[in-house]
Amino acid sequence: MRRNGQVAFQEPENSSEEGVEEVTDESDSGDDVAPSSPQKAKGKAKEGSSIIVQTAFDAYFTYNKPGRGQTSSNIFSQLVLPLSAEEYRDAIDSTLKNSRTLQPSLLKEESRDYLFSRFTCELEEGFNILCYGLGSKRRVLNQFATDVCSKRGHVVVVNGFQPDLNVKDVLNSIESIPHIQDLELSSTNVDKQARRIHDFFASHKTHLYLIIHNIDAAPLRATKTKSILALLGQNPRIHIIASVDHINAPLLWSSSETSSRKKDEIVPGSIPSRGFSWLWHDLTTLASYDFELAFADRSSLSGAHTGGARKRTDTLAAQNATAMSETAASHILVSVTQKAKKLFALLGKQQLQAIEAADDASAGNLQQFGMGYDVMFASARDGFIATNETALRALLGEFRDHNLILSGPAASGGGEVLWIPMRKERLANVLRSLDTQ
Amino acid sequence: MRKSWNTLSAFLTSYSICSGFNLMLDVASNLDDISKTTFCIPYRPQVEGDDPIEESKRIIPPTFSSQNYDLENGRELRFEAYRVAWRRCLDRMQEIIRDLQRPTVKAVVQEALSSYTNILPGLPHPELPVISLLNPGLGTSFMDNITTELEANNSEVDLPTSVRSLVIHLYPSDLPNLSTGMRVIISGFIEKDEREDVKRKPGTSVASYNILYLAAWYKSWAKFVDDPQPNLVVALHDFEQFDPLVMQDVFHICSTQVPQLPLVFLLSMTSPSSNYLNATYSRSTQSLLRLRTFSAPSGIHILQEIVIKTFFDIDFEPDIMIGPAILEYLQDYFTRYNSSIDAVLALLQLVHLNHFTADPFSVLVHQSLDAGVLSQMQSKPFLEMLKARVALLSDKDDAMDIDDWSSLTTASVLTTIDEARSKLYLRARNIRKAFGVMFRIQTVLESNGHKGIEWSLSTDNSGRVCNVLLDILRGQLYRDVKRLGLIIKKLNYDELRAIVDSLHRYVFTMPVQARSEEQEARGYMAHYVSQLPDGRPVSTPEIAAHFSDWITKYLSDKLLPLDDVDLWDIWYTGMTPFPSELINPSTRASIISGLLRPHEFTEDLEKTAVRERPVPRPLWELPDTSILFKRYLDSGKMINVYDWYESFKSVLDTQRTQLLEAAASNGTPSSPRKRGRKAKIKQTLHEMTEEEEEKWRIEAQARFIRALHELDHLGFIKHTGRKADHILRTVFDVDDEE
User: Fold this and answer.
1) Which domains does chain A have, with CATH numbers?
2) Which candidate in A149, A190, B273, B657 could, as Cys together with A209 as Cys, close a disulfide (CB 3.0–4.6 Å)?
3) Cα–Cα distance between B690 and A95 in angstroms, integer?
4) What is the DSSP string of B617-641?
5) Cα–Cα distances in Å, from A323 out to A318, B319, B699?
6) How many H helices and E strands in chain B?
């Protein structure tokens, strides 16, 4: 893969000088159905000559040999500009329009009906259900909730993948069920709340179906939350149907939690046990996780990484620093003075020219197309935008605060370089709209 | 600008829906609302006060391979049958478990109640009684039994004075830190007070986490309940998961108030290691405690006890007999993965559920159906199928003759079924009897110091007996029977006498039905007892030889396999395997094969009964995430994201070319291609304007990010700060296809 990556990386450089060669080059890669990596080829050759087949264990030890891993020194975030939310959405929309999705046989109507009636029977027999397998299970489980569960009892659907989910939300949502509302809802302590819900369903004959999407998600992993869910999960009239996606999700529960049994009936006043009594079901839907990842920051590589609260502030900061959308830019530009707009246009045009001159827009790093501070000051004075340096600094201040103009040390020699963190065509659009105004 | 306006208006519409008037209006679209974390769909019964599930019919799920000969209400009837069969089995097992627990429960309760009555004299300082309870196998019911016993006033435990006690339960999440923990303990006891709440002036009482508060309350409460010194028991569940730093302070604080405040700590441990406390807590903490350790029965011994007493005990007849495949799985699962009783119960429940799901004939387990029901029009397919099966039984040459089975009357079919049922149950009983006999002989032999037939009953946790049971079910016990005969021949008077006595007792104390079947055996046993008179040793070889011959014949007659009986599969699970993925799934393998071979999940399993090895798809035909994952598997342990992206993009380029080509030729992409057309497509690709090129690049990047985030969501990626824009692999599986 490494070499492959490098070859691919060099391609754009060639393309500027040797357009013809590039075509033949591409036709080669088009010919073989998929470009295979050197390692893969080696593996095949080995297999042909010997009967020893590599296993996962071998792979582990091969890849974890001491010594440095050999990777190239390309840096993604420097070479490729992050996408703005709109660009991402447009691109994915056009992808979705063109591609066909795979429909697993499990989701055909008759097998789904079979699955649902199995779920119901198992839930009523005192088990909770946990669905695993590749693909978003949200749609299927929601359908189960609306088509089957809602006819049998109250249903609460929990979107565990939402980063701001709180166990309190879940409990409050359960307590918004009409009959529970009639109770005296005095305490707002989560433990008391959970206990109250537990007691309610232990003594009443109504059932509660708790659909939890991504019970392995960060907000539901905390011990406190887990113990509350375990309390609810052992109630004979509360049924949990949950989904997991993470490969290590089974490690969340101890074997005694996984296998503990629900009692048939709860004696009032007795001490409730805790556990889940999971039954596992493979529910591979192959569906995309777009809804689950709606909160992921698409401009960051680690945007989908679930790392708790710290992650959220990180991604916010990152968003401000890099992804500047057209809308955001136009909002800023509307609120600045005429002179400042002129300054922006000046810098923008300069940068656009530089990008076009470089003839290699895809290379990413925008700093190289920036404008030296000295040059800028001179042209600003010539254009009667700012007569002295203080005025220029003041004009730039507004843009800098909003990260519309960034500055950094020049690559060659000293001095400061200013540039606008926007892709070529985005910048062109902004400048055009600025002109029309 | 226009775009942003669209977004805004879309947002406003969705907002008006979600904040809108009716929750129930359109639930499905409402669930897609991204601004809410939870959704509540209240249940609205048709009639007020309706009981939702108890009223609605409960049915067994349909079979996957749609068997079209089921009765009209067959699923309902089978569910009923399942309930009856499982309930009987469960009741029996719970009784066994209670018996297993009883001695330990009694000892623990005794210890907890008498903690403050017989304190060792002459200790330097009073110690805090701590009872540690090792309970790796018996599940939550064990702890429940103890606490109910403790709280019950009329406990079976004999104590000089009736001591009552209060119990509170704490879980690891209750004690995140010291002050919260103490508050939970103190308020836990005070809330149990039946007296009316006393109003306290906030300024004058001690803080709610102060142990003196509890001491003061205890003084007044003890006076109120008129009890010399009731104990306060704190039960800590899953003690290993409590924070030791917090717990050591709790112990320290509580020990300052003993014995005025008679606290007893009951620690429920789930690990079988007995020195957790010694290993985790410091000496200074341990010196404050008076530790008593009890352990509940555990290990393969409890599984044996349950299996033998439920399925191989003459006193109990289960409706469904488990087969060797299930028993083997049960033993394997118990010894390897999860040696807890709860798991065994869940497993056997699933076996029952599965048995009644798989075959519509299982409706006949308890009684044959009413002839009237069968004569109904809707039951015709069921009856026909049943007749066909019964006819097949009488036909030894396997040739199905239509006249043969259509001539059968319903009544005769039902008689056949009844006969088959009693025959199977008789055979199962015989197996139980034979096992009981062998078990008793072996017990006597082992108690006399013989190895016997090497069942090693006396050594716990050997698991040998389960293997014996497996041999019995498979009908492979002849060797043991023969050996037993040889051993008996060589026994001396005392040993023979002991065996005969034991068996005599056994055959005379069987349940009524079994005893009546054993007329002959009882006669023989009485004969042998009279042959071996008390106190007068006689020459034994002839008797022993005779006895040995008889017992060998007796056992061989009894130990016949169950699956020889007609229609055995209605009552016996035979070689049907346990659906192990229900409780012990391979989630990782499932996800990885979903990524590597997504197309195999789209095949209809019903139609392609015989599967040939699937043809591997070219890489570009796979979904984006799969392409990226394949590249992931090709790389080293660290991946440079940029290179990954480039290799991904090159596959997308291929994909694009192929799709364009397919669109141009309007045929399948894999059809033989002509050089000329391909060149033309290359031409069009090359002629792509710069704008299009840029658009394609953005699309590729978006798809890369999307696939990357999906892999991250699935847990395949570990981010690292060690090298810029590098990630670490978390999975090192290899693609089997290659």
Assistant:
1) 2-74 (no CATH), 105-282 (3.40.50.300), 326-436 (1.10.10)
2) A149
3) 19
4) PPGGGS-HHHHHHHHHHHS-SEEEH
5) 8, 68, 17
6) 28, 9
Residues 309-368 of A with CB under 8 A from B: 327, 330, 361-362
Cα–Cα distance measured from residue B231 to residue B485, given in angstroms and rounded to the nearest whole number? 59
Tell me if chain A has a CB within 8 Å of the CB of B634.
yes
Q: SS3 sequence, B212-247?
A: HHHHHHHHHHHHHHCCCCCEEEEEECCHHHCCHHHH
CATH top-level class for B91-193+207-298? alpha beta
Work out the number of other CB atoms within 10 angstroms of the CB of residue B534.
7
pLDDT at A324 over 70: no
Kindly state the helix (H) or strand (E) to which residue A433 belongs, with its residue range. Answer: helix A424-436
pLDDT single digits (tens) B664-696: 876 544 444 444 555 555 555 566 778 888 888
Contact A382, A98 (CB under 8 A): no
For residue A201, give the amino acid letter.
Answer: F
pLDDT tens for each residue of A177-186: 877 777 776 6
ipTM above 0.85, yes or no: no
Nearest-CA residue of chain A relative to B708? Answer: A301
The B residues from 303 to 342 touching A (CB cutoff 8 Å) are 337-338, 340, 342
φ/ψ bin of B252: left (φ > 0), alpha (ψ from -120 to 50), beta (otherwise): alpha
Residues of A in contact with B695 (CB under 8 A): 91
d(CA B561, CA B545) in angstroms, rounded, equals 27
CA-CA distance, B45 to A151, in Å (whole number)?
Answer: 8
CB–CB of A415/A372 below 8 Å?
yes
Per residue in B206-265, pLDDT (tens digit) is 888 889 989 988 888 888 876 667 889 999 988 888 899 999 999 999 999 888 888 999
The neighbouring-strand residues paired with B572 are B321
**Ranges of H-type helices in A154-284:** 167-175, 178-181, 190-203, 218-221, 223-233, 255-259
Closest CA to B169 of A251, A274, A280, A360: A274
- Residue of chain B whose Cα is closest to the Cα of A281: B582
Task: Convert B433-465 to b/e letters by CB count within 10 Å (16 or more is b).
Answer: bbbbbbbbbbbbbbeeeeebbebbbeeeebbeb
For strands B38-41 and A154-159, give the pairing: antiparallel
Task: Tell me: pLDDT of B189 over 80.
Answer: yes
Q: What is the number of alpha carbons within 13 Å of residue A304 lying toward its C-beta? A: 22
A297 touches B at CB < 8 Å:
no
B147 in reach of chain A (CB within 8 A): yes
Q: Tell me the β-bridge partners of B50.
A: none
Quote the pLDDT of residue A246: 92
Alpha-carbon gap: B442 to the closest alpha carbon of chain A (Å) = 35
Q: Are A305 and B719 an interchain contact pair (Cβ–Cβ within 8 Å)?
A: yes
Number of CB pairs, chain A paired with chain B, less than 8 A apart? 409
Q: If pLDDT is split at 50, 70 and 90, which confidence band does B409 have?
A: confident
Task: Calculate how close chain A gets to B37, using CA atoms only, in Å.
Answer: 5
In chain B, domain spans = 1-48, 91-193+207-298, 302-570, 619-729
